[in-house]
Amino acid sequence: MLAVENLAKVYWSGSTRQVVLEGLTFRIRQGETVALLGASGSGKTTLLNLISGIDNPDSGSVSLDGVKVHALAEPERTLLRRRRIGFVFQFFNLIHTLTVGENVALPLELLGCDHASTQARVADLLAAVGLGGLEPRFPETLSGGEQQRAAIARALAHRPALLLADEPTGNLDEDTAGRIIELLSDLARQEGTTLLLVTHSLPVARVADRVLRLSHGQVAPAEEP
Amino acid sequence: MNLFSPLLLRAGLRYLMHHRWQGLLALSGIALGVAVVLAVDLANSGARAAFELSVQQLQGKATHRLAVPGDLLPDEVYINLKRQPGAPPMAPVVSDWVRIKGAPGRYQLVGFDLFAEAPFRGQIAERLTAPAFISDWLTDAGGLLPGAAATRALRLVAGDRLDIVYRDQPTTLQVLQANTQQDSSGDNVLLVDIATAKTILDMQGQLSYVDLILDPDSEHWIRQHIPPGVELQTVAEQAQGVTRLSAAFELNLTAMSLLAMLVGMFLVFNAMTFSLVQRRSLFGRLRAIGVTPRELFTLILLEAVMMAMLGTLLGMLIGVWLGKGLTRLVAATVSDLYYTVSVSALQLDGTSLMFAAVLGVLATLLATLVPAWQAARTPPLTTLSRTALEQAARRGIPLWAVFGLLLLLAGLLLALVLPGGVIMSFAGLFSLVLGAAMMTPLMIRLLHRLLTTVALPGIWRMGVRDLDRHLSRLGIAVAALMVALSASVGVGVMVESMRGSVHTWLTELLCADLYVAAQGFDEGARLPETFLQEVSGLETVAAISRYRERTLPLHGRHVELIGAHLAAPSRRGFALLSSTASAWQDFDNGAVLLSEPLAYRLGLVPGASLQLPTAEGPLNVQVAAVFRDYASEHGRIFLDETVYRRYWPDQGLNTLALFARNGEVASMRRELGELAAHTALVLTPAAAILEESMAVFDRTFRVTEVLRAVSLVVAFIGVLSALMALQLERGKEYAVLRALGLTRVQLVGLISGESLLMGLLAACVAIPTGVLMAWVLIQSVQQRAFGWTMPFSVDTGLLLQTLLVGLLAAGLAAIYPAWRSASRNPAPQLRED
Q1: What stretch of H or E contains B549?
Q2: CB atoms within 10 A of CB B570
Q3: B606 touches chain A (CB under 8 A)
Q4: Which residues pair with B514 in a beta bridge?
Q5: CATH number at residue A117
Q6: What is the extent of the structural domain holding A90?
Q7: pLDDT tens per residue, range B710-720
């Protein structure tokens, strides 16, 4: 489903060269949940940005269902994200001027879905993440955990083939983090969505079918999932 | 795919609702810009429409007019034509301006021949031939029918008696019927029977003109039958000749209003940039979930259109209100300088409203394009930090400055080097201003570097650094303030230069000790020839200059022709800009002195020849010299009295300029006082004429002053808007400072200091820009619009005033944001992520 081949990314800070990813290769099957473990600054977020087409690699390729992401022009990559990819961020990144319901509805509206089916999907998802009835509330009135639940609902709204989660529990307390990660992986499995979960926390990675470790720009299977 | 997402639009509008101040300030930028443009346009069109209405009412269905250029038409011309078989419809008219005893302003007294009127002015003829009215009109020699505006202004009712004064001669007329129509504001006329008019206006055996209704055949017939010296004009040509006079004045006002709109556009640009930069993380999130740059761009433009529509609507309401006041000012100036108009109510001109609406929306969209394009290019998830953003903005500064310099140079080229009309000069002026505005951020950086070398106390040092740190946003606000201040300097220096030039010119020209005219001289009253002999015999009079004036149609304009005998001191008062080797000798031999505006317009230089229309056919004269003149933009021609009287023999003296022997002005005045016992005279010392002329000058520029003030208000809002937005963005930073121990007073000091610094920097850039603008205004705009040039002089007081205004505007703008920041509880802001 997702194939990453020899991916490399280098950042320059003045004349200093910083290799973030170097010849990175791995594959993820359809419906699989994979956790990518790595320390801060190991290039986890860079990798997600490259997979989603937000950033361009220096070399190598990313294929999503056989489509080479970086062979697409920028507008096509944007549409690929809109149709096939969902995002869950560490800082939730909900849109503060939209209600919870509207936040979840936004990806569907962008895809041109009709109002009735959008509303039904929003209600289902919010109920599934435990926020049923909170549609008219604005994000700032919710707790951190509730905001992340809303973000998960938004990420899954358009039934993406691939869900990218970047430290989804990094901003939550331990208890809430545990519940959120369970919810995320359960929903991804229910929806048949491939989940790539980036984290530095081993307990969080335990929900995955497979755990990879990112270190020194290379990825390797973790010894203990 | 949808053209735009309603949800995204809702998100954008909610953002603006959450940041009402920002939205309101952007709205006020659009609204004020539109308001000023609309108000000026309404005032101009109101004055023009009032004039055209009065002309239209008087000309009725006439297509042509018979007249003698610069003179009256003998009755015989009309009678002879009328008697011929096949003569087309004709109506004789007698008309001139009169005063009403005890009422301000002048009114047009018009005499019609009732029996010739029906085909021409049906409405008037209908009123005059009403059974209850016609006998009074024909039998009562003093019967009067006032126009609607005159009826309203003088509060007339039927039966009232009205004392009118013409050339100091009073006559009493009786109002036969009051015109109470509400829709006609321009008809400032008093209608009387033609015989009554001839008596009052002393035009026995003469007519002002004859109106005609002609088709091509009858036009051909008339041309074959009119005697030499009589001219056939179309009425359109006639009216155009008058309205064209004020075109340059209108254009100047319009340009000033567009300058206010330009400042308004900066404000919109500023507000939109702020609102978009503040939402960059939102745009980054949207881009991450699949919103394309084009969708973002459309969304932002849609937001701008909605704001533009609201702002334009608001601006149109303010514009109509502002237009009411401005119409009175413009009408007063037009009446002072060009033609008498009476505007009693604001006319809502559809074209003006449409122009303002389109301009408001287009200007907002134009101001939004760059920030929208930048926002649409926001990378997904906003990989750029605030610092990186500022660094990117800073990298762009030299490029903006180069563009600005090119625009500025192009502006100078357009205005000063390339040939063209006044519109080209204004295009150059706008290009110059825009160029200077684009160079402003670089100037700020350079001045900032200079300031950093000065050892400032800690908090002030922070203020100076902040300005550089937030250059991408503050730069635009400073540029907006700079544009307003430079416009103020430019126009101020121009007005002051002109005031100084006019004063010098008048002081030199009015070198006689006393000027003498007949009472009622402004209605054309003349001094009797016998009076000249009496004055010449006075012991105390050393020298006399004599002036006889008339208006002459020349190349579609009404030029003043002055037949003069100029005494030696009067000749010294002329500032000759260029002349033949023996200019005064040539003048004595029949050559003319041409005023600068006329020479410029006709492209004439000393030695060239000019044709003057006379009753005996064209008179060829040579140009002896071109003299500096600000009396009339339409032009003045001085011709030796002897030659003048050969062609216009029966015209009396208008004015005498008297020079006292041995400076005994008081004795001369006493002797003249004795003469005045049997001749109605107006004795005016040069100083009084100078004072009155300068008062008219100041009245003329009152409108300009209003527009200058409005531009400054718009710029003040710009700075306020920038500070408010910055305060919003830096809330957390201020909270941290408060947490670290910065007192409220210190925080107020920091914000106010930054604002004052913005004012200072804006003024520093505005002063040279404004001086450059003044140079273009004087060297290009004034010459191309009015035909005159003037020495360039910069008043340092005005420059100092600009600096203070800049500081004051910035200081005032800081009060509310500073108070708001200082009074906020820092705790919630510290908790925000």
Answers
A1: strand B541-554
A2: 21
A3: no
A4: B658, B685
A5: 3.40.50.300
A6: 2-221
A7: 767 776 776 67
